[in-house]
Amino acid sequence: xKAIILAGGKGLRLRPLxxxxxxxxxxxxxxxxxxxxxxWLRKYGSVDQVVFACGYKWERLxxxxxxxFEGLAIDYSVEESPLGTGGAIKGVxxxxxxxxxxxxxxxDVLTDLxxxxxxxxxxxxxxxxxxxxxxxxxxYGVVHIDKLKMVRKFDEKPxxxxxxxxGGIYLLDAKQILGxxxxxxDVERETFPKLVTYGEISAxxxxxxxxxxxxxxxxxxxxxxxxxxxxxxx
Length: 234
What we know:
- This protein is 31% helix and 32% strand.
- By secondary structure, the chain is α/β, with parallel strands linked by helices.
- A hairpin with a 2-residue loop joins strand 2 and strand 3.
- It is globular, with a radius of gyration of 19 Å.
- It starts with a strand and ends with a helix.
- The model has no long low-confidence stretch (mean pLDDT 90).
């Protein structure tokens, strides 16, 4: 299986850490996000190649990882101007001639998702795409009141198990989806809504660790979560 890491963003909310490097090179407990992602991919033995869809400061990725990382072949699809997530995916599929299953992930996502289980969901569904979903977590504390408008309970940033958000990891049938991808534009806005009308997206819910590193607050939370995860590892 091939994997595409969408690494073209400038990471403006992580400045000054991204002044001289792309967001996937921001370290989490000493390791770049991209390295943690590839270590996660290696746990699923069928992934043999990673292509970074990149642009901003992409040379820093190549300086760090070169053409291989612990058995994974690495290549770089460099955008002269931003293409959006859909255009980036299309460019990689066309450039590298991908025709089978391909995994796509945003370059700022960290997770302990079982990729093998997601692959099972994808292949069982026979859909054109499978999307990882995570429960919506409120960024605020929630206050519960009764009919008399008396405060009865506080929930600090609760999860809502009946509400789901896009987790930024997808399995796609490269051959089938190619014609549905824009030359320039986002897959989330231009491709996925159209696939939904044809029943071509299956969902893979994930309740475990998931973090998007998009701000300094996110970075601190990711470092705490991964430190705890490593401490529990045998």
